[in-house]
């Protein structure tokens, strides 16, 4: 059976991970959350008190960072491990979200993570979500989806998720963080989030997760038929 790579890019909290997971499960593919890798690097820098604006110090720190995805015991998904420690929950904290876009601007960080991401996708059969997957990581991905939704819908969804996970945040904080991250992620010099004609555009402000899954799978089936 022919295998493809699927790139899902888009703004923060558009449900990229939800769709990517569903597609990977249905196709028997590997789901990779590339944002988790940027978040784990951010956690390492904060924990080790490394100044994010000091690119030389950050580049040196990268030599001491090992990232791996391991299947979790409780739920059917892969969780990120930083130097052997499961940090899946820690990287979702708001203080990480507040810094991660600054870390993701650094070319040395991007270079290291893109290399790992490309190795993972070498043999196809990967659904990866992020910001530069269809432009830089897998420019030849057979299917590219660009997801978007209104600011209000995105902020409310991320807020609900964080509250359900026991995080202490306000809707205003979450909304301000999303807008700030989108601005930085779309305007940075290295690999900005960019929509081009190779993507299928998916605005899910007014459709259910099921509807978006059906739509995305219809694009896959066109390719695999
Ligand atoms: O998808 P996320 O919100 O977990 O991503 C966290 C941050 O990492 C986001 O602000 C942008 C950055 N990122 C990136 O620059 N490139 C990627 N491929 C994935 C994430």
In short:
With 225 residues, the chain is of the alpha/beta class. The protein has 9 helices and 8 strands. It is globular and about 50 Å long.
Fold topology:
Blueprint (H helix, E strand, L loop, with lengths): L4 E6 L5 H12 L2 E4 H14 L7 H8 L4 E5 L6 E5 L2 E2 L7 H10 L3 H14 L5 E5 L2 H5 L5 E6 L2 H14 L6 H17 L12 E4 L5 H16 L1
Bound molecules: 2'-deoxycytidine-5'-monophosphate.
Explain what this protein looks like in three dimensions.
- The chain is α/β, with parallel strands linked by helices and 225 residues long.
- The chain contains nine helices and eight strands.
- The protein has one domain: P-loop containing nucleotide triphosphate hydrolases (Rossmann fold).
- The strands form two sheets. It has a five-stranded parallel beta sheet with strand order 2-6-1-7-8. The protein has a three-stranded antiparallel beta sheet with strand order 3-4-5, with helices on one face.
- Helix 1 crosses helix 9, helix 2 packs across helix 4 and helix 4 packs parallel to helix 8.
- The model has no long low-confidence stretch (mean pLDDT 95).
- The structure holds 2'-deoxycytidine-5'-monophosphate (DC).
């Amino acid at each position: 059976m022919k295998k493809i790579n699927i790139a899902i890019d888009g703004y923060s909290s558009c449900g990229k991970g939800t769709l990517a997971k569903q597609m990977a499960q249905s196709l028997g593919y590997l789901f990779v959350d590339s944002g988790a890798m940027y978040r784990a690097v951010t956690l390492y820098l904060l924990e080790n008190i490394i100044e994010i604006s000091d690119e030389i110090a950050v580049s040196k720190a990268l030599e001491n960072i090992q990232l791996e995805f391991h299947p979790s015991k409780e739920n059917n998904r892969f969780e990120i491990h930083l130097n052997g420690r499961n940090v899946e929950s820690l990287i979702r904290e708001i203080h990480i979200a507040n810094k991660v876009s600054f870390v993701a601007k650094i070319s040395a960080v991007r270079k290291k993570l893109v290399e790992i991401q490309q190795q993972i996708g070498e043999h196809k059969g990967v659904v990866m979500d992020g910001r530069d997957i269809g432009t830089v990581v897998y420019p030849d991905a057979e299917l590219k989806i660009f997801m978007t939704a209104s600011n209000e819908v995105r902020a409310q969804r991320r807020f609900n998720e964080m509250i359900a996970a026991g995080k202490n945040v306000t809707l205003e904080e979450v909304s301000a963080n999303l807008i700030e991250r989108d601005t930085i992620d779309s305007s940075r010099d290295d690999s900005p989030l960019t929509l081009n004609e190779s993507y299928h555009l998916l605005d899910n402000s007014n459709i259910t997760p099921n509807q978006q899954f059906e739509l995305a799978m219809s694009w896959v089936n066109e390719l695999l038929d």
